[in-house]
TrEMBL record, chain A:
The lineage of its organism: Bacteria, Pseudomonadati, Pseudomonadota, Alphaproteobacteria, Rhodobacterales. Pfam families: BPD_transp_1, OppC_N. Residues 86-286 form the ABC transmembrane type-1 domain. This is Peptide/nickel transport system permease protein. Keywords: Cell membrane, Membrane, Transmembrane, Transmembrane helix, Transport.
From TrEMBL, chain B:
Signal peptide: none annotated. It is found in: Cell inner membrane. PROSITE patterns: ABC_TRANSPORTER_1, ABC_TRANSPORTER_2. It is a peripheral membrane protein. This is Peptide/nickel transport system ATP-binding protein. CDD domains: ABC_NikE_OppD_transporters. The lineage of its organism: Bacteria, Pseudomonadati, Pseudomonadota, Alphaproteobacteria, Rhodobacterales. The keyword Ubl conjugation does not apply. The keyword Magnesium does not apply.
Length: 302, 322
């Protein structure tokens, strides 16, 4: 693999990567440090005052210095809810991609390396999975889940459910990417060289082939995080994702959307801007990673 | 003759071709049809033939990369093709392979040290780490590689350097027998000679036995001690190298030797023997070479000739050699 210093050098020579990296870093730090730096804890009902509801941003007439980006209908500061909400969105995005990657890489490696009926079976399964839209599957699963449990249980397990639903629904993307790389790699002679010394299939798959298929996996991982965040936001926007008292960026956009025609645009606009910045920076970094991790584009600087 | 190091008996290899799952026909490609070779310790046994004659399949079957459909493969009189993996492990350390394409035969994500250490770690797991390092350094030195290469990745090396590393990997477990599958055909002509000389030197130093697969007869002349000429999955002629070049017995061997471009004499002036390889899926009943053979008669088309030993020790599969 590319050494860290070469990686850093490539990163520092690319302004787009630096920009995307800084935006992502700021958002991640903001999310992680939210309990320390947020002006208000939006989860604590004692800190909320209904008299503060629907205040415009601080620089507008009627604004309050305590709430830089205004407040929502429940008197929560938009800035604070964005800080906490970004964390929840990122957690779901990363968690879902880990589930996707574990499922998809394992099944894709087995399908590609073993071939035959195992391959046909797993890939038809992937086709079926892909023909059902992720959003539709997620809506059905979450609607059943929220109907089956009461609101408090739902609120407690919503994050895990979203991670599992998005993770399971999107595994074929990893499986197909990995499988197609494996098909190309397993014909190469280094795989034969490993078989000549009698290395078991498991070690050839994980030790030899997988590292050579990681480039596309890393690229789609970053892009899939963005995708998972978007799916979660869509579900929350439809009212099936995170509940309003533990809002993700999607639920924030939704909760503000009801007030957009009464002039309280800030409740929707600011979370939406953060969502766009988050998804865009992830996608840009994904593209940049694809270029950097391709060993053929490197010129022996490490 | 002494005890052969590697021997095949009636080795057959058939591959089922992909078909529609409803079709009744099950076409089968015959890659090897009863190959008997026995390789003596210390020799360079060359296998030559056109593309598709099964020479690579033979090498891969001997190394256990392909499971034979019929027949036996023996290593020092032990049958290895049906042996279970645990029993075979010590034998794998004795048999190694050098591949054709040095650009594909080294894992691009592994540095040279890890590539070379893996066979020792897997096949001789009791070797202490210091000894692994020592062994890796000694084979690198023996194959003319710089010890500083160990931490570098394959893409930093040229084709000839990579092939040296691949040879070093094959030697790292101290094998007695090496299958070299066209090890020089992917290299520059100037590098080919270096690699051939390296293989010859290593043979002298370590008493290696080679199964050398090639389509290049001039390499055979330089390198081989015995030659098997293969055609459509069968051995057509098997002889000492000098005998093959001086007195080719089989008409196919003669055709191959005539096809070597020469400086004088104009080998392109003579009319070429027409004909193509027969279809390896529907094999002819008689001699596979009969459609191209100038000597072919009715008997050749009806009866497949067996490999027979001639007066000068050459073995040839032809009805017209008596």
């Amino acid at each position: 693999m590319i050494s860290f210093s070469a990686f850093l050098k490539r990163f520092l020579s690319d302004p787009v990567a630096i920009g995307a990296g800084i935006v992502l870093l700021v958002l991640v730090l903001m999310a992680v440090l939210a309990p320390l730096i947020a002006p208000q804890n939006p989860y604590d009902p004692l800190q909320l005052d209904i008299m503060d509801s629907e205040m415009p941003p601080a620089w507008k007439p009627g604004g309050d210095e305590r709430f830089l980006l205004g407040t929502d209908a429940q008197g929560r500061g938009v800035l604070s809810t964005i800080m906490y909400g970004t964390g929840i969105s990122l957690l779901i995005g990363v968690g879902a991609v880990i589930v996707q990657a574990v499922l998809g890489i394992t099944l894709g490696l087995i399908a590609g390396y073993k071939g035959g009926w195992i391959d046909s079976f797993l890939m038809r399964l992937a086709d079926i999975q892909l023909s059902l839209s992720t959003l539709m599957m997620a809506i059905i699963a979450l609607a059943l889940f929220s109907a089956a449990f009461d609101a408090n249980t739902y609120a407690d397990y919503a994050i895990i459910m979203l991670i599992l639903v998005i993770g399971i629904a999107e595994w074929p993307k990893f499986a197909r990417t990995v499988r197609s790389s494996v098909l190309g790699e397993k014909k190469k002679e280094y795989v034969d060289a490993a078989r000549v010394i009698g290395l078991p299939a498991r070690r050839i798959m994980w030790g030899h082939i997988l590292p050579n298929t990681l480039t596309p996996v890393l690229v789609i991982s970053t892009i899939q995080v963005a995708e998972a965040i978007m799916i979660e936001a869509s579900l929350s926007f439809l009212g099936l994702g995170m509940p309003t008292d533990r809002p993700s960026l999607g639920s924030l956009i939704r909760s503000g959307f009801e007030f957009i025609f009464s002039g309280s645009w800030w409740i929707t606009l600011f979370p939406a801007l953060v969502l766009i910045a988050l998804v865009l920076s992830l996608n840009l970094l994904g593209d940049w990673l694809r270029d950097v991790l391709n060993p053929k584009l490197r010129r022996g600087e490490d | 003759m002494t005890q052969p190091i590697v021997e095949t008996r009636g080795l057959e290899m058939r591959f089922a071709l992909p078909t529609h799952f409803l079709s009744r026909e099950k076409p089968v490609l015959h890659a090897l049809n009863g190959v008997d070779v026995s390789i003596q310790p210390g020799e360079s046994f060359c296998v030559v033939g056109e593309s598709g004659c099964g020479k690579t399949t033979l090498g891969r079957a001997i190394m256990g990369l392909l499971a034979p459909s019929a027949g036996e493969i023996l290593f020092r009189d032990q049958r290895i093709d049906t042996m279970d993996e645990r029993m075979r492990k010590p034998i794998r350390a004795e048999m190694q392979m050098v591949f054709q394409n040095p650009y594909a035969s080294l894992n691009p994500r592994r540095n040279v040290f890890d590539t070379l250490a893996e066979p020792i770690r897997h096949l001789l797991p009791d070797t202490p780490a210091a000894e692994v390092r020592e062994q890796v350094e000694s084979v690198l030195a023996a194959t003319g590689c710089d010890p500083s290469w160990q931490r570098r990745l394959p893409h930093e090396f040229s084709g000839g350097q990579r092939q040296r590393i691949a040879i070093a990997r094959a030697l790292v477990t101290n094998p007695a027998f090496i299958v070299a599958d066209e090890p020089i055909s992917a290299l520059d002509v100037s590098i080919q000679a270096q690699i051939l000389n390296l293989l010859t030197d290593l043979q002298a130093d370590r008493g290696l036995t080679y199964l050398f697969i090639t389509h290049d007869l001039s390499v055979v002349e330089h390198f081989g001690s015995r030659v098997a000429v293969m055609y459509l999955g069968q051995v057509m002629e098997l002889a000492e190298t000098q005998a093959i070049f001086a007195q080719p017995k089989h008409p196919y061997t003669r055709l191959l030797l005539e096809a070597i471009p020469k400086l004088e004499g104009g080998s392109f002036d003579k009319p070429r023997t027409p004909g193509e390889l027969p279809d390896p899926v529907n094999l002819p009943v008689g001699c596979p070479f009969a459609p191209r053979c100038p000597l072919a008669d009715a008997r050749c088309r009806a009866e497949r000739p067996k490999l027979r030993t001639l007066a000068n020790g050459t073995q040839a599969a032809c009805h017209h050699t008596e």
